Structure formats: structure tokens, C-alpha cells
Amino acid sequence: MARLDRYTCEEVFRRLDDYVDRELGSEEMTQMQRHLETCVVCAREYSFEMSLVRQVRDKLQRVSAPPNLLGRISAALEGAAES
Ligand SMILES: [Zn+2]
Which residue ranges make up each domain of the chain? Predict the structure, then answer.
């Protein structure tokens, strides 16, 4: 079986940053998605990376947002955390 129809965990780990940033081609995105749906180890690593990215984006938003928006953003974040 020379044909690669599935990524190994190593290949997923190598591409994880690009996948989080959505910088992969559609074929690679599909392969990553397929692996993450079936592999608990990589899915956990992926959700960890995603939570880090979200935290950084939240911080950047807070820094660049005008003061009157801060209350609305933190209220929205609290709402999102509850759901
Ligand atoms: Zn895996």
C-alpha cells in the first residue's frame, strides 16, 4: 500500500500550526480533519493549540479595542464560556 490515504500522527503534528492558521491546501485540510475526527491524541493537541490561539486573539482584541467596547467584548466572552 504505497498510496497515502491517511495522515500519520507525526504528519498531523508537523502540520498542526498551519492547520490552526488555515494555511494548508484544501486537500491537506481535509486529510487533517479526517485524522482529527478519528484520533483522540491529535484531537486533544489540536484543541489545546486552538485554545492558545483564541487566548492570544482575545488579548489582541482587548488591547486594540476602544474602551467603550471592552465591556461588550468581555460580556460576549463570558456568554461564550457559559454555552
Ligand atoms: Zn493522530
Answer: 9-82
